[in-house]
Amino acid sequence: MTKLLRYSTAVCLCALLLGRPAHAQTLTVLYPDLGNPYRAVFNEIIQGIEEQSKARARGIALAPNSDIGELRSTLKNGKVVIALGRQGLKAASALDPALGVVAGGVSGIGMAPDSERLSGISLTPDPALLFGLLKSLMPGARRVIVIYNPQANEALIRLAREAARGLGLELVAVEAADLASAARAYEAQFAGADSRRDALWLPQDPVTVEETTILPLVLRESWSRNLTVFSSSMLHVKQGVLFGLYPNNVQLGRDLAALAEAMQNGEPPRHGLSPLRAVRTAINSRTASHLGLNLVAGQQRSFDAVFPEP
Question: Quick one: CATH architecture of 5-106?
Answer without folding.
Answer: 3-Layer(aba) Sandwich (3.40)
